[in-house]
Specification:
Blueprint: H1 9-21, E1 25-33, E2 39-46, E3 57-62, H2 73-86, E4 94-96, E5 102-106, E6 113-114, E7 121-130, E8 139-147, H3 148-151, H4 159-175, E9 188-192, E10 197-198, E11 203-204, H5 211-228, E12 235-236, H6 240-246, H7 250-262, E13 266-269, E14 272-275, H8 277-280, H9 283-296, H10 303-306
Parallel strand pairs: 8-9
Antiparallel strand pairs: 1-2, 2-3, 4-5, 5-7, 6-7, 7-8, 10-11, 12-14, 13-14
Helix pairs in contact: 4-6, 5-7
Length: about 300
């Protein structure tokens, strides 16, 4: 049921206008509550009214939030435009890690809330789920935290202004083997500190990559998100979210994809790519990489306990 009649009219109207300008349609609106019980507004957006559920975006904003300000509107506009392109992917919710893990992101409870443990941090909870095409139950419940110092560089503690760097921090933490994907478990910390941000360059830096590692990443991405999860439908290869994660630019990713196309690995349609039979033939290689990445997330000190060898 559309609950827009009970929602703040200024927020609903401005979001509808901004979405339309970005090429998106607001399918529904509804009310919710944040971690502290304060009212929020949910928007379900898509490229068209006929979009399937997997190609929709759930946007949650504080009910009192006003993004129609000179310091906030540009980033909201950019977020919606990028989302419109990302929603052309068969699985817009899924990303891959450099280590070789395809994961989806869901159930993030925006906006940030202050820590209840006494720490001087802001928290957002969500889930990262392994997406290997087998219906795996493996996932991580994450508690991403940013320090008060870090929060000073974020325009607003709302989804459009933080989603990209939070998702990339989760990816980086997985790459480091510091998040374990489990069938069940407690929330695991994902700290987001100023080490991920260069005040001098005024940008986020998660990892350094070169042409070879970027091409490997794009091939990995297209294999999993198109070849395995997307029925060989084209996926966006010039995604700024990936560019931030890899410390590069969307233009550089497009250049890397063109090189992969010349090698016969990708079929390009503008900034979108699908795998060729040559790339799909590397399935064993990518499955082995995934297995190695999963193994790296399992704490070695737990192995004896996993096997039942403990006197505790």
């Amino acid at each position: 049921m559309d609950a827009s009649t009970a929602l703040p009219s200024h927020l609903v109207a401005r979001l509808h206008t901004a979405a339309q300008q970005a090429g998106l349609t607001v399918l529904s609106t509804g009310s919710g509550k944040d971690f502290n019980g304060h009212p929020t507004t949910h928007f379900v957006l898509a490229q068209s009214p006929e979009a399937p559920p997997e190609r929709t975006l759930l946007l949650e904003l504080s009910e009192a939030f006003d993004f129609h300000k000179p310091d906030l509107l540009p980033e909201m506009t950019l977020y919606l435009r990028e989302s419109a392109l990302r929603l052309r992917n068969p699985r817009p919710d899924a990303l891959v890690t450099l280590a070789g893990l395809p994961v989806s992101f869901s159930h993030f409870g925006w906006p940030f809330h202050r820590s209840t443990s006494g720490a001087d941090t802001f928290i957002v909870h969500g889930t990262a789920h392994l997406e290997d095409g087998t219906g795996s139950p493996l996932h991580a419940l994450v508690s991403a935290s940013m320090t008060v110092t870090f929060a000073e560089i974020v325009p607003a503690p709302e989804q459009p202004y933080a989603e990209t760097f939070i998702y990339n921090a989760v990816r980086k933490t997985l790459d480091r083997g510091q998040l374990e994907l489990l069938k069940s478990g407690n929330r695991q910390p994902v700290p987001v500190t100023t080490r991920y941000y260069s005040r001098w360059q005024k940008k986020f830096i998660f990892t350094d990559t070169d042409d070879r590692s970027r091409m490997d990443f794009l091939a990995l991405k297209v294999y999993w998100l198109s070849g395995v999860l997307g029925g060989n439908q084209h996926v966006w290869i010039a995604d700024p979210r990936d560019a931030q994660y890899l410390n590069t630019t969307a233009d550089e990713l497009a250049r890397m994809a063109a090189d992969l196309s010349r090698q016969g690995l990708l079929s390009l349609d503008g900034d979108f790519a699908a795998p060729t039979p040559i790339l799909l033939a590397s399935a064993d290689q990518y499955r082995a990489k995934l297995d190695a990445a999963l193994a790296a997330t399992r704490p070695s000190f737990n192995e004896d306990m996993r096997a039942g060898h403990t006197n505790m």
